[in-house]
Amino acid sequence: MLSSVSKQNIIERIKDVHNNDENQLEVIFSNANKLIVEAPAGCGKTKTIISKIAYIIASNELPNPKKILALTFSVNAAYKMKKDVSEELPKMIDVDNVHPLKVNDKVYISNYHGFARHILNLYGYLIHENLRNINFFDSVDDSDMEKIYQLGIGLSLEQSREISDFNQAVKEINIDYIKSNFNSYIEIINETFIPNNMIPYNAILILAIELFKKFSNVKKFYQGYFPVIIVDEFQDTNILSWNLLKSLISEKTNVIFMGDSLQRIYGFIGAIPNLISSAENYYKMEKIELNKNYRFKDNAEMLILDKNIRSNAEDIMHPNIEENARINLSVTKNQQDEAKWVTEKIIELIKKDPEHKIAILVKQRSINVGIIIAELEKQNIDYFFGLFRDDDSEYINFHRLCLQKFNEHLKSDEGNRISKSILNRIYNKVEEKFEGEQSATTESLLSLLKVFFDKIIIEYSFLDVEDKISFIKDTFENNVLKQHMENISKNVILSTIHGAKGLEWSYVIMPDMEQFVFPNYYGLCGSCKYSYREIYNMGCILNEPKSIEDKFLEELSVFYVGVTRARKQIFFSSSQERVNNNYEIKKTYISCLLSLPGIEYNI
Ligand SMILES: Nc1ncnc2c1ncn2[C@@H]1O[C@H](COP(=O)(O)OP(=O)(O)OP(=O)(O)O)[C@@H](O)[C@H]1O
């Protein structure tokens, strides 16, 4: 136990390392039982979480064996948090050398799926005896009804459809469907999947919710065991994780939700809209906003751009703009010239700063991006192809294969070990499958697999075996090898903005900032009331954004996430012609996103 002297020391230390940032300190020292923190990128969220944990521990609010539970939706974000906390927390609380702080004794950090699997491993037997072996189960992709039917575990077509429809309902947040099919879904899982040691990805969360629903003593135990719950990236929470979270929260639970509504770009896979304000009302939470941006503190232009994009999100019709952000925008005659400009910019940046990495971030795969790829190849620029699509079968099947090979290891005599040679062996088995027939996607995925396994051995060596296994399993089950793109050794990475969420590079180039590309037809252009002729005279500007508020905010969020991936500088480009899906050359205009109030460019 820490003495009150050391508590005072920690308070002083926290004030010092936070440079007296009032809002951060308010979050750390707040006594609010339910607190919601809006924290834009770079405003010290991670730093604040670590100090908050340190302060709670130092205040002796956690009698043994109670723990702080820290959760996030993304696997990689959870383990990044775990690494930061493991490295920084002992520095904050150097209790003494006799009883060094063991982070795992005080904090349980995980993604929702990892956490749910952990609980089912311990208490899932109350639902089904076989759940004791959940760590060895094969995971099943919920989305593909055909594949589910072909598993050969006695599912009817109807049942197979129910599993994939349920997955669709989770993505579409169809609460009525989820409620009315909840019990029959669980029945199918219990009768067909679990006896065959298989589990669909959604079922991991659903069974944990069911466990808490059916066995209130287990729920009460966990509510007492975790008196403090911190949730990071709260805006990405989906309907299942939200329900799991709610079961863990009692009146007494000290809750801190941290998130940024403008970084919610996964609406299309089920991130709940307006969750920050809904949660605020639901739990009557106190709200604090972190607003000092430390990431761009030495780059005035980036700081203004960040601020002005956020102002546009806060008040669509009358954003509060104090000063315009001047952006670097290149406008070329056609796509070929634009591709040349992109490669020249890359060569210039590498010459100036050979150590720094550059990401080319696009809204989506397209013929126009193909022209940039051709130019990168012509100029012999070694780049990483990261244009993955979540629904691409090649992308999904690669993860299934990795999971299968990893599960084979778990079932072997060495199953309780993770070492460099074991991971090398698994890598070789995966690689063997693609010998002689590697597409750009598989070649990239193999590089990512290597980078990921190296990370587990080097950067994440501090994790215990259970955590390492969970990290690996969740990465494969959730198809998220792409989250390791920033660790690729190549200087240049080509990715979608969605794939780049949570990652950072020194420089970011966003090409194809054009009408019908970003935003595209489904994004905003299809709802725009201006005719081509009007646009020709006045440029592409946003028309009555209030009437298309949801669509506008969605596009703005993707734009914001793209911009904030840059640590040092962002460059935009646009061309006056684009190639459409029928390979026809069409006239186009600079994206309306670059004409928002507060953004200014010289051509
Ligand atoms: N109060 C502070 N004083 C000085 N530096 C700070 C302060 N708060 C944060 N920083 C620094 O700013 C940078 C960003 O902080 P941090 O990583 O905690 O932000 P974040 O909000 O988690 O960012 P992101 O959401 O992009 O991960 C870090 O280098 C951090 O050390």
UniProtKB/TrEMBL annotation:
| Keyword terms, alphabetized | ATP-binding, DNA-binding, Helicase, Hydrolase, Isomerase, Nucleotide-binding
Q: Which GO terms describe its biological process?
A: recombinational repair
Mind telling me which Pfam families this protein's record contains?
UvrD-helicase, UvrD_C
EC? 5.6.2.4
Leader peptide range in chain numbering = none
This chain's protein is named DNA 3'-5' helicase
Superkingdom, natural source:
Bacteria
Where does the record place the UvrD-like helicase ATP-binding domain? Answer: 18-297
Q: Matching PROSITE patterns, A to Z?
A: UVRD_HELICASE_ATP_BIND
Q: What family is reported?
A: Belongs to the helicase family. UvrD subfamily.
Reactions catalysed, as given in the entry: Couples ATP hydrolysis with the unwinding of duplex DNA by translocating in the 3'-5' direction; ATP + H2O = ADP + phosphate + H(+)
